[in-house]
Amino acid sequence: MLTTYHEKSCESKLAAITNDTPVAAYFNSKALVWHAMYTHTRKDVWASIHQTRLARFLSLADKLHLPQGTKVLEVGCGAGHTAVALAQRGYNVQATDVAQNMIELAQKNADAAGVADRVHITMEDIYNLRFPSNAFGLVLSIGVIPWLSFPGPAIEELGRVIKPGGYLFFTADNRWRLAHLLDPAVSPAFGQAKKLFKRIFSRPNHSALEPPGIESYLHSLGEVDALLAQSGLERVYHETVGFGPFTLFHRKLLPERLGVAINRALQGLLELRVPFLQLTGAQFLILARKRG
After folding, report:
1. pLDDT digits (tens, 9 = 90+) for 157-173
2. What predicted TM-score, i.e. pTM, was given to this entire model?
3. CATH of the domain at 248
4. Does residue 168 sit in helix, strand or coil?
5. How far apart are alpha carbons 190 and 91 in whole angstroms?
């Protein structure tokens, strides 16, 4: 019996949901950790990178000059900081997450900011969104794709709900990030030798962002473009953000204060368009457009 494309798509989405269940559980358990990431109560390298990422996204969103009242969908809203900021700009935001604790935090933050009337929050699965096709002028999924074992079906689903000519904004972790290039245990330049390093040098201390047994996925810009093309989307802009934390065989090299200073210095040089740094930031910020 021949298997239809629809059946294959359903099978891949079911496998994706099963594979990504531990990730959803992790984020549910670490909701307050990620909430603090954007509130300036944390001053480590990871927090500095994520705060810069949010600021850069909002700057890019402003440059789109979307009309007031534009319907925006955020998939993976976390504690709701981005959704609140977009609602404050006059957009009608549908925010979703798979973690109940994140949803509750997002609702509290929307209430506290006085924008609860423009932020509607629900639990949704990125592979099976309960929204009609062509419904949103802007869809964003920040910090989600790197955690998905099946990014293709997820991007396809995000693309489905975007209006023709509308925008998708998401992030991907850069395979060629500087922090990895400098650590032989994870550098893509060492190829198969990484497996040996991994056996010899285990990760002794997982940070709050590196849960044991769960790994994020890295992508090249070419891989990102291929995923977009399969979903009827085209990249129109990208930039990179973040440098560090720097490690040697997974072990942190620098104290947090120095790491933060180096990250900020390299980010400043990046904004001066230093070519090498443009290729080696920790994360890609991707803006794509749905073909009309």
Report:
1. 999 999 999 999 999 99
2. 0.88
3. 3.40.50.150
4. strand
5. 46
